Amino acid sequence: MNPLTEALQISKLIKVVPRSRNLEALLLFFAAGLNAFEIAQIQLSILEKITTDLFTYWFPPIAFAFVLHLILRRRASEADPLILPIAVVLNGLGIAMIYRLDLASIASGGAELFAVRQVMWTALAMAIAAMVIFFVPSQLFLRRYVYVSMAAGIALLLLPLVPFIGTTINGATLWISVFGTTFQPGEIAKIALIIFFAGYLVNRKDSLAVVGRKILGVRIPRGRELGPILVIWLASIGVLVLQRDLGTSILYFGLFLVMIYVATGRAFYAGIGVAMLITGGLVASRVLDYVSRRFDSWLNPFNQENYDAVGGSYQIVQGIFGMANGGLFGTGLGGGVPQLVPLAESDFIVASLAEELGLIGFFAILALYFLLVARGLKVGFRHSDEFAKLMAVGFAFVIALQVFVVIGGVTRILPLTGLTTPLLAAGGSSLLANWIIIAMLLRLSDSAADRQAEVSIR
Amino acid sequence: MTRELRRVSLVVAAMFMSLFLAGTLLQAVNTEALANDPRNVRNIYESYKTQRGPILVDGKPIAESIAVDSAYRYLRTYDNEIYSGVTGYFSVFRGATGIESAANSYLSGQSSSQFFEQVNAVLSGNPITGAAVELTLDPSLQQAAWDALGDYRGALIAIDPVTGNILAMVSKPGFNVNRIAGHNSEKVRENYVEFEADPANPLINKTISGDLYHPGSVFKLVVAAAALESGEYTNESTFPNPISVRLPKSTSEVFNSSRSTCGSDPTVTLIYALRYSCNVPFVELGLALGQDRLRAQAELFGFGKEVRVPMLATPSVFPAEMDDAQLGLSSFGQFDVRVSPLQMALISSAIANGGLMMQPNLIESVISPNLSVIQSPQPEVLAQPITAATADALKKMMVQSVSKGVASNASVYGVKVAGKTGTAENGDNERVTLWFTGFAPSINPKVAIALVIEDGGGRDSGASGNGTAAPVARSFFKAVFGQ
Question: Which of A274, B53, B173, B476 could cross-link with B131 by S-S, CB 3.0 to 4.6 Å?
């Protein structure tokens, strides 16, 4: 037996008792209890009895969570123990609220139900997340596919513009229609482009940071380095503007800005990016009619004219009314009327939850997201591989920014844009994308710890 | 990279802080103003959680909330279509009308007089129960009015002239309120659209609201009252008696409905003109009095004023700024004069009550769930539009109108009925509006009524107040006096 394989076997022996996995299992039991409690409360409040539906909406995500947990024990035993339970709690809370809205819809004679589909998508998304953890052994594997990722990302972004399969919903051309279900490929494109950017920036970061002519005391990188990034960046934003999706444009913009800044350490990029965003927003609000109406609805939502206008402020005002009605402690799950808000189960699910769980519940949800993002950023801090660092920052920040843009839109910090709340909102593509992101963060958190373990053995 | 990561982390923290702050502003600081915004319909939903109080007639519920096994907890059910105009509806999807709307604060338990129960509800955690609202309606008279109107489109309102209590309030056609009070939004919307599209307007309580009606000859009571109040005329004052009169500065001629003179004498008395409802003498009288005096008398009777019963009644209209031709037409209730049945019933009740017009009222009492009486409105004088002498003179004219005039079909054996009919034209080729207003018995009156029949009673021609409306009044009076 050669010394290398011996060393590997020793390290395997050392990792036999993964304490973090036991903590994860404990937290998952807690998450399972919490999710069951939410659905039970909803049933007791609305139906005044517990039905077997509780099992339908509660069990599949929990079962898959434990499958994921077992896979982590085998394939990524040092992964962060908080990420999976947080994702399960948020996902379960989303299913509970969607189920609650379905019950309200049934009570008033509606037929279109979202909760069953949400559970099915959750199961699918978690299964794919499990596969990602199973088949992607480390970030090094992804490093080989940096340019493939780029091509895939661009292709996915363009897909909705292809005739026949592209579908326009609420004025935005973001969906493709396959086998009768709609899918938003832009959500997956996000992941592919994060991989590409991380890979590209790691290769070129030094020349981006150091090489280049100085103009007015600011070093401008050579076109050779900057060019491809600018092209991909502008192309992705251009496509999104064509597809009329403001929220995702802002998301991509902010995401790439942060990744370039972290890779190069040049505040210049951040400054110019923020300046571009503000000018872009102002110009768009003047030039693009739908953007200017959004702005007016944002600044004067209680104006009766904006309130009555088609696509005006009715939705946000109803969401705000709901949150105000919830107050500090909320009406209790099943006790409010969140169904009054259009899209209560997707864009406005946070307003629905805030109405029924109150400010306390709203804080708890934000805290869960904050913790999730913090765990992602922690991977960025701890990982020794710069490619992994950049990916971790990208994935963590994309969740943070998405939460900020959606909830900021609902609470009037920002103009309202069409983004989904990660893991909570109804929507298959978003669930799928976010569970892949969770899988990636788990994988990266494992290798971040792995390296340290190996170092200590040596 | 660590330095950059730290800065990015700070930005992320700042983003989350701003979200925490924005949520606090909405859910803990500006909460009150947002919750009370009239566009915040959550209050209506909230009201479904409490058991809404019943609406009672003679102690029996005509509308009540029944516990059901659904998210709304209580289903509002309505007992009988004859009350649909009075109760209105209470619907999650359409809001509320009628008593359901006007007495909502009592029914929902939110009135200030239920303050202690509200405190108790907060402390105990049990939802508050709404108060019961007992109406002044007499169920047998309500049924009689409903039956008397038969298949006609129209309305009948009966008031106790001494107290102002509304004894019957029927609007036809009625509607099955349960079809709007349900919890299936699709169905409710369908039913509502169906009711709203119905040209007979079942959703409107025609006694007090909707498009007002041309009064036609029943308005002659107001003109006669103005004449008597002026002191220049008595029942026996005489007027020239031509076949027709030409309206000033116009080519139009006004005829009596008989197309002949009003009696065979060269002059005609006021009492005779009213008894036979002759147009020509009333045009002469109206022109002689002038529009200011007519308008003043109409306003004393309540034209142009809002009255709550407690539902808001549409004010009746006497037009402003008329020329003499228009004044002539207004003198027998045409041109732009518009009235509600409530207005006509109030005029009759004032005449019946010696000139005192009582506040019309539908609410007998409000009873809290613990059976204490929260409120019971007492009779109140609304106005004194005419003197007792004028009231007596008008009463005499109306009695003759029924006993030996053109309101003869309203007469009831053994009871002295006072009344006035009207046949109002609504324009060429339009069907007429038919009226009866009056009271009985003429001494110590028990009930004053006004009834209107739309659409010529379903006939293109030949309908008249005496032929169509007076018999309805007669069958109603017969029920009042137990015949």
Answer: B53
Of the given ranges (B111-120, B150-159, B385-394, B439-448), which has the lowest mean pLDDT? B111-120
Cβ–Cβ contacts within 10 Å for residue B21, how many? 12
Q: Which of B84, B91, B171, B217 is catalytic?
A: B217
- Give the pLDDT of residue A456: 45
DSSP state string for A121-139: HHHHHHHHHHHHHHH---H
Residue B454 maps to a domain: yes
Q: Which residues in chain A are contacts of B19 at CB distance < 8 A?
A: 366, 403-404, 407-408, 411, 413
User: What is this structure's pTM?
Assistant: 0.62
Instruction: Name A215's bridge partners.
Output: A218
- B163 within a domain of the structure (yes/no): no
Q: Does ipTM top 0.85?
A: yes
Report the DSSP pairing between strands B154-159 and B166-172.
antiparallel
Active site residue B217: yes
Q: B182 pLDDT band (50/70/90 cuts)?
A: confident
> Is the Cβ pair B19, A413 closer than 8 Å?
yes
Give a yes or no: residue B346 inside a domain.
yes
Residue with tokens 């972004």: A157
Tell me the chain B residues in contact with residue A109 when contact means C-beta distances shorter than 8 Å. Answer: 183-187
pLDDT of residue A11: 55
* Rounded mean pLDDT, A244-267: 82
A283's CB contacts (< 8 A; 6+ apart) are: none
Rounded to a whole number of angstroms, the distance from the CA of A262 to the nearest CA of chain B is: 5
> What contacts B167, CB < 8 A, 6 or more positions away?
B136, B137, B138, B141, B142, B158, B159, B160, B447
Long-range pairs of A378-384 with CB within 8 A, sequence gap ≥ 24:
A378/A80, A378/A445, A379/A80, A379/A441, A379/A444, A379/A445, A379/A448, A380/A262, A380/B1, A380/B5, A381/B2, A381/B5, A382/A448, A382/A449, A382/A452, A383/A444, A383/A447, A383/A448, A383/A451, A384/A448, A384/A451
Please report, for the domain that includes residue B226, its CATH number. Answer: 3.40.710.10
Closest-CA residue to B420 (of B443, B441, B438): B438
Q: Which residues of B touch A (CB under 8 A)?
A: 1-5, 7-9, 11-13, 15-16, 18-20, 22-28, 30-31, 34-35, 37, 39-42, 45, 69-72, 183-187
Which one of B4, B11, B21, B27 makes the best mutation probe of the A interface by having the most chain A beta carbons within 10 Å? B27
CB contact under 8 A, B12 and A400: yes
Burial of A423 (0-12, 13-18, 19+ CB in 10 A): buried
Candidates B7, B10, B12, B50, partner chain A, best to mutate (most A CBs within 10 A): B12
| C-alpha R_g of chain A | 23
Q: How far apart are CA A336 and CA A326, in angstroms?
A: 8
Q: Domain residues for B352? A: 216-363+381-480
